[in-house]
Task: inverse folding
């Protein structure tokens, strides 16, 4: 089983959708705490509708997003602090329930975790992908 991750920092919406289609992704799991974007095409409703038109389902799991202090740390280049904040956040029950939901979605259909950063190593989605790999043995494919 494969689990994809994708960031859209320097990509256009059509390019992201094409990458998802080329990888055979059937459902995008949006792991942003705030599913709004100043980047054209990536706010929740527009993105969901565009994905649907391309035959890809969309699910927003807000509690799998990085809390504001973690996002601030990432913006300042302090990736370790962002990871620490995110890991602490993931100990709460709501994120754990949504992680279980993500796991079930990814077991049923090829899924991609979506967030902003191009580099998965500088993004919390790598932590989520690693956790899902540990729980279910997914092969991680960073698009």
Result:
């Amino acid at each position: 089983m494969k689990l994809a991750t994708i960031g859209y920092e320097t990509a256009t919406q059509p390019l992201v959708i094409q990458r998802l289609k080329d990888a055979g992704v059937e459902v995008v799991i949006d792991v942003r705490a705030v599913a709004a974007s100043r980047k054209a095409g990536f706010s929740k409703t527009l993105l969901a509708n565009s994905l649907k038109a391309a035959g890809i389902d969309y699910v927003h799991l807000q509690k799998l997003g990085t809390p504001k202090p973690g996002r601030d740390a990432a913006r300042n280049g302090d990736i370790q602090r962002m990871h620490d904040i995110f890991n602490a956040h993931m100990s709460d029950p709501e994120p754990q329930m949504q992680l279980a939901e993500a796991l079930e979605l990814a077991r049923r259909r090829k899924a991609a975790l979506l967030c902003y950063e191009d580099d998965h190593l500088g993004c919390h989605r790598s932590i989520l992908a690693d956790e899902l790999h540990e729980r279910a043995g997914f092969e991680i494919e960073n698009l």
Summary: Helices lie at 13-22, 44-53, 68-75, 79-89, 93-108, 125-136. The radius of gyration is 14 Å.
